[in-house]
Write a structure and sequence with these properties.
Layout: H1 2-15, E1 20-22, H2 29-35, E2 38-41, H3 49-58, E3 62-65, H4 72-84, E4 90-94, H5 110-119, E5 124-126, H6 128-132, H7 138-148, E6 152-153, H8 174-194
Parallel strand pairs: 1-2, 2-3, 3-4, 4-5, 5-6
Length: 195
Amino acid sequence: KEEGLRILEEVKRAFDLRIVTEVMDIETLPAVAAVADMIQIGARNMQNFSLLEAAGRARRPVLLKRGMSATIEELFMAAEYLLSLGNYDVCLCERGIRTFETMTRNTFDLSAVVMIKHYSHLPVIADPSHAVGIDWAVPPLAKASLMAGADGLIIEVHPDPDRAWSDGQQSLNFEEYARLAAELKELADWQARRR
């Protein structure tokens, strides 16, 4: 783990990148917080209250992913753990929920983006890649997320998705991502003109 964090720090410096990385437990939180610009609390840890409390005290921005079977209200309550400890730099992430549907990995709850924006002051990030788990379905869901009010997107990208060690089936290649980024910029510009 220490070697991985050292490499992450080197890559961050070399390419002037901002790093968002998942923290899995309280023990590794200090080391991750020392390198990461934003700490991610993954879907499986959304209700790990001791981890939420520790992340709240860490005073690092937090990306809180919605749990696989969590309601929007439960996501809000998990965010309260962070906020109550004085960490106000919290983003909520819709990444799909578990339902009876089998055609996609998860059911991408686009209505959650709308509800979070309406009922909360917190930014919302949409993660269509993890939600649907199918590369060709990511672009239309990313565009729909933007139109629904998402403040940001998580899009999986890989130079050769067929050879990726993990999540290749949901990853766009560089050309697909560049095309999607251009289309998203056009949509964002159109939205800005309408306001």
